[in-house]
Amino acid sequence: MELYKTIIQGKLLFSNSNSFAKALKMYELRVETYYKNDIIFEADDIFDEEKLTMEIPRLVRQLYDKTFKNTVTLIEYCSQFAISGVVDAWLIQDGKISIYKHLEPISDKIAVKEYIKGRELINEKGKEQEAIDALNKAIDKYNNHAMAYERRAKVNFMLKKLHDAKRDYGKSITIDDSNARPFLGRAEVLIHEENWQEAITDLDKAIKLSVALQPIYWHARRLKSICHMNEKEFDKAEFDLKLFTKRSFSEDNPNIHWVPWANYHYAEVLMELEKFDDALVEYEKASADDVGEIKGISKALIIRKRAIAKKELGKNGVLADLKQASELGDKIATKLLKELS
């Protein structure tokens, strides 16, 4: 039998002692009768009666796939008794994700149903208030619904209600500080306020609480690079952008659309650090023919910056790049072209 790398982490919250007791009882019963103890966790390791939680700190271990599947199926079964929370689990084979499970409560409980309804409405344009109404109902039924607070914060941020968004993100973190999402969300508010250092603190937390297999991990890395650039911490920005640009994202990963953006800003940071050779490589990636428009950055600007990098290195092609940038409407390139011609 082959061993596989597995990662499991997360937390489930129970609304009362009865729900907690049912989950614990069924866990222990099924471990013995269904799975013959072929699971990862003993009940005492993950169930906390005082906090009414099932909590799984990040576990990274080589396991047989049967043990992984048994454990995930058992956690999924117990999640029906929970009121909030999420557990993520990955089984990795030859460096690729073979199995991914995202487990969260699905039941007829009002708090659960309204949370799911509100979460789904967020993705429908014009349904923001309906989403808030549903999330309010979930919170009214279970005041410690950390995920409902986080999603309500997201809607408030979309509606530019920054004070309300920051309040809800903070409430979510106070209830459950093991989830990366509210830290990322609050960081986005802080970035909007240009509070770079506090945003960095939250983004570091989001990175620590997520894994590189999750899009949120790379989203946080990219945002942190922005904060470091604004604080003139170019060596730290270099670290985040180097990781981001070297990562190979799948087509369904939203971060893939930000790679040319990251190439350009990585080049800018390298120029500040006087690493001109590396900067030129990144400018060339960002200006490649198969790269479309980069949000907020014109092709002309990238080509002009590419010309400057070439000039610093004494390479050919400076005038050709400036001419191309000028023809694309870059006035600074036009001026530089006249000065150098």
Q: Summary?
A:
The chain is an alpha+beta fold and 341 residues long.
Structure notes:
This protein has 341 residues and is of the alpha+beta class. The chain has a domain at 3-103. 60% of the residues lie in helices and 13% in strands. It has 16 helices and five strands. It has helices spanning 17-33, 43-46, 65-79, 110-121, 128-141, 146-158, 162-175, 180-192, 196-209, 215-230, 234-246, 259-272, 276-286, 299-313, 318-327, 331-340, and strands spanning 3-13, 47-48, 53-64, 84-93, 96-103. It has a five-stranded antiparallel sheet with strand order 2-3-1-4-5, with helices on both faces. A hairpin with a 2-residue loop joins strand 4 (84-93) and strand 5 (96-103). The mean pLDDT is 95.
One letter per element, helices H and strands E, the order comes to EHHEEHEEHHHHHHHHHHHHH
Q: What ranges have pLDDT less than 50 throughout 5 or more consecutive residues?
A: none
Query: Approximately how much helix is present in the residues?
Result: 55-70%
Give the N-to-C terminal Cα separation: 70 Å
| Tally of helical segments | 16
Strand content: 5-15%
- So what's the overall shape? elongated
The spatial strand order of the largest sheet comes to: 2-3-1-4-5
